[in-house]
Amino acid sequence: MTTATTTATVLEASGVTMRFGGLTAVRSVDLTVNTGEIVGLIGPNGAGKTTFFNCLTGLYVPTEGKVSYKGTVLPPKPHLVTKAGIARTFQNIRLFANMTVLENVLVGRHTRTKEGLWSALLRGPGFRKAEATSRERAMELLEFIGLAHKADHLSRNLPYGEQRKLEIARALASEPGLLLLDEPTAGMNPQETRATEELVFAIRDKGIAVLVIEHDMRFIFNLCDRVAVLVQGEKLIEGTSDVVQGDDRVIAAYLGEPFEGAPEDTALDAVEAAEAQAADADADADTDTAEAPAAEAQTADAHTAEGDTK
Amino acid sequence: MTTTTTETTAADTTPRLVPLPHSAARVLIALGAIGTIASTFMSWTWTSDFPGDLTVYGYPAGLQVLALTGGLLTLLLGLTLWDVPGLRWANPARHAAPLALAAASAFAVCWFTGIAIAVDLGGFVNLDPGAYVAMAASLVALLGTLALPTPGGTWRDYLKKAENIPPAADLAPWAQRLAVTAATALALIIFTYGIGIPDEESETFIGFLLLVVLGTWALFAAGLFDRFSALNARHKGFAATLAFLAAAVFPLTQSDDHNANIGVNILIVGTVALGLNVVVGLTGLLDLGYAAFLGVGTYAAALVSGSEFSRFSGVQFPFWAAALTGMAASLIFGVLIGAPTLRLRGDYLAIVTLGFGEIFRITVNSLDGASGPNITNGPNGIARIPDIEIFGLNLGNAHQIGPFTIGRFANYFLLMLVITAIVVLIFNRASDSRIGRSWIAIREDETAATAMGINGFRVKLIAFALGASLAGLAGTVSAHVGYSVNPAPYQFAGSVPPNSAFLLAAVVLGGMGTVNGPILGATLLYLIPEKLTFLQKYQLLAFGIALVLLMRFRPEGIIANRRRQLEFHDNDPLDVPEQRLPDSTVGATKAGA
């Protein structure tokens, strides 16, 4: 995809709302992603980030609102969304465990090829050519993520970090204009996280816009041109790293509200500055702190996961 | 194994089941094997009342042939302990397990025979010296093998495949082809021998099963199967042609058309099971009403066969047209059933297909002119279906090719073989393509597959339709082979083979997603009740037990899928990540960074 023209809108979500019965998981969220951009989506556990992703990719049909890709409104069918040009990875790795690494990527090529059953049975020259091109393209992608030497391994036998990479390669195989990454560094050590960072930059340099959910603040703030914060299903703020990092409401969402009758102004500022620094530097441990106040929000998250598996 | 001293010291420290020095063990194995072989040339009982006539001195018969084979196998593997040149291939890892299993096969056959003679004829007094020699010798050989050192020293270690099997020497291509040919010929001989055991000789067939199971296990433990499949993969076309030829030779080896009848029925259920494999094995859709598709094909062919009982008795299609009609009818039926049901997943789909399978049978039963329009003749079915004529050749008549007589069923066997080959080709080509990959992706993770741009419903419907039409194709032949069709066999579970549970069991037993698996599974499931007549009453029970044991000990089926065989890193703990993260416990897996 070589649509790296200045700043065209790739993704435009407007007023996306998702309700599960009485629970509103995502409430009227607007988000745009432009070409050549890396946009981050953060928020405490259960904030509705993954649900929002599922709305974008058609796994859920949004209760309200619409999602358009490069100006055309997307139908809420996952395969049509992928065909249009949005690819995604999953929070819990969802590779095709008993297929080889190469085959996983080949499945990603599904929408960019069209050989049906008949051509598979007749094996005409067109079929062979398409198959050869797909393999070539898939091997290129495996080179790109550095897994070419493991092309014939079963994907479930890969180490965790490589499974994450393979999921990205599989998503890239569909030649998307926008890549949605759902926690690409979850469970990774710092080196692997850095490597993933490089990978995301390389993907951006290919002209693919990236929208990424992540808990690792350092990762997000290094990477993203813009960051949107989702709290309890609503978009709290959107802006550059500095704006988001300095916002009181964001800090409150992650660390909790200051209690009633707390020391005023100056003392509070000092505390917040320290906390912000902690949140920034202590990226590895951030979920420990984030998970405590968001404990009740986890039930909502479990709900999301349940919807996911259906 | 250079000097005896290092050998004995090594052997003394390694654990084993029977505490004997290594040299003694080797001698025991050799003596036991030779004794077993020798005993088969003696008389085992005094009367020919026992099946197979084991009374003759001078040559082996019936169960003795099986004992002889077991003894020879033990001897062959035993000789590798002496490093006999030219035999090292038989047990490349010099492992105890293949030997123990081979000795166990001889032991099982000999002792089974001895006990069977005693039970059948009333007492051990009916045993002749030969039987005692056989039992003693086979026991000696077994004890000898159990005295061989193994890594663990528990009985399980005598059943496991050898580790660290050295890579095969690079043979010349002609030698590789020769090895493939020999293995194929061996398989043909084993199959022909098994099918040729007369139906009333249940004892001989049980002995045959014991020998085949333990013997193949021994060869598997020696690593010979891995080598064979590697050779097969290298000479794919050659091996496939050879297998086809071997199958085509089978009816020529049979003087009795009854065995050819069994053969053609095995091919029919095997082909249908292969069609079901597209749906169950590749796409992962549990279809419990698959026999209905076979039924549709069979009925369609019967209706246009020109039978006087058919509603359209004036119509007689040539075979190719009838085959296409059967396929088309099944295809339409498949799409009609698939379109509403394939929107369901998992258990719901299984229940609904089960329902539709029964609907087919009941509908056919009702279309008899009384409860509904007369199309299928109801429970009476369509009888007197004329034989197929191809190129002016009536398959109902026996034909003479050189010295061989090709009987009616042998004719159908050859026709069915061609159809099986076509179905195998279709299966192979479909599974190794864009559409096949999308089936497997759906099986592995449907949500991820749709997120990769696969239209799940459409792709599943194609799998359903393809599976249905393959069953319909096989059904067109089965209508003619069986002379008549009636709705009874096309049920969910029953004692007559082409029922849904049988087909599903064939696929699962043989190995889902493979080509050979369902055919092997169908062969076993068809042949065993056919030969062990006393089992027929308990067939469903035996099915259940077999499947439970299979799920416990070898869930991937007898023949493992190519993908499963790629698990070459499973023993490497560093390389194995956690199994797929549980989907429902997000809180636990959501640890950031």
From TrEMBL, chain A:
<protein>
    <submittedName>
        <fullName>ABC transporter ATP-binding protein</fullName>
    </submittedName>
</protein>
<dbReference type="GO" id="GO:0015188">
    <property type="term" value="F:L-isoleucine transmembrane transporter activity"/>
</dbReference>
<dbReference type="GO" id="GO:0016887">
    <property type="term" value="F:ATP hydrolysis activity"/>
</dbReference>
<feature type="compositionally biased region" description="Low complexity">
    <location>
        <begin position="290"/>
        <end position="302"/>
    </location>
</feature>
<dbReference type="Pfam" id="PF12399">
    <property type="entry name" value="BCA_ABC_TP_C"/>
</dbReference>
<dbReference type="GO" id="GO:0015808">
    <property type="term" value="P:L-alanine transport"/>
</dbReference>
<dbReference type="InterPro" id="IPR027417">
    <property type="entry name" value="P-loop_NTPase"/>
</dbReference>
<dbReference type="InterPro" id="IPR032823">
    <property type="entry name" value="BCA_ABC_TP_C"/>
</dbReference>
<dbReference type="InterPro" id="IPR003439">
    <property type="entry name" value="ABC_transporter-like_ATP-bd"/>
</dbReference>
<dbReference type="GO" id="GO:1903805">
    <property type="term" value="P:L-valine import across plasma membrane"/>
</dbReference>
<dbReference type="GO" id="GO:0042941">
    <property type="term" value="P:D-alanine transmembrane transport"/>
</dbReference>
<keyword id="KW-0547">Nucleotide-binding</keyword>
<dbReference type="GO" id="GO:1903806">
    <property type="term" value="P:L-isoleucine import across plasma membrane"/>
</dbReference>
<feature type="region of interest" description="Disordered">
    <location>
        <begin position="273"/>
        <end position="310"/>
    </location>
</feature>
<keyword id="KW-0067">ATP-binding</keyword>
<dbReference type="GO" id="GO:0005886">
    <property type="term" value="C:plasma membrane"/>
</dbReference>
<feature type="domain" description="ABC transporter">
    <location>
        <begin position="11"/>
        <end position="257"/>
    </location>
</feature>
<dbReference type="Pfam" id="PF00005">
    <property type="entry name" value="ABC_tran"/>
</dbReference>
<dbReference type="GO" id="GO:0015192">
    <property type="term" value="F:L-phenylalanine transmembrane transporter activity"/>
</dbReference>
<dbReference type="InterPro" id="IPR003593">
    <property type="entry name" value="AAA+_ATPase"/>
</dbReference>
<keyword id="KW-0813">Transport</keyword>
<dbReference type="InterPro" id="IPR051120">
    <property type="entry name" value="ABC_AA/LPS_Transport"/>
</dbReference>
<dbReference type="GO" id="GO:0005304">
    <property type="term" value="F:L-valine transmembrane transporter activity"/>
</dbReference>
<dbReference type="GO" id="GO:0005524">
    <property type="term" value="F:ATP binding"/>
</dbReference>
